[in-house]
Amino acid sequence: MSDVIDLDPAPNRVVAGDNGLNVDGVSVDAPKVTFQLWDGEPEVQRNFRDPVDVVMQSSSGKVYLVNIFGDGDEEDAIDLGREDSSWNVRVSFGITSSEDEAYLIQFWPTS
User: Domain range holding 47?
Assistant: First the structure.
C-alpha cells in the first residue's frame, strides 16, 4: 500500500504525519503537481513561492495523490526508494504560463 498526498481545498496550509501529507488551499480541481526526489536538500525554486517544509514518515516508500473525495490512483504512485523512512518534504506554490495553479512537492531523506 502506498502513502497518500491529499490535495484538499481549504486555507493554505501543509500538514504531514505518518503515511500522509495534506496540502490545503488548492483552489482548482486539477492543479499541476510536480514531484521531485533529491539526495539532499534542494534549493528553493525561484518560480514557486510560499515554500513549506515538513517531515513525513512513509512506511511504504511510495506516495500518490488523492483529492478531497479520496479519488486517486495508487498505480500512479511515486517510489521514494526506501520503506519505513522519514522524508523532508517541501511544498511550494506557483502559477504556470497558462495561468494554471501548480505545486512542486520535493522529497529528500531526513538523514
Answer: 3-109
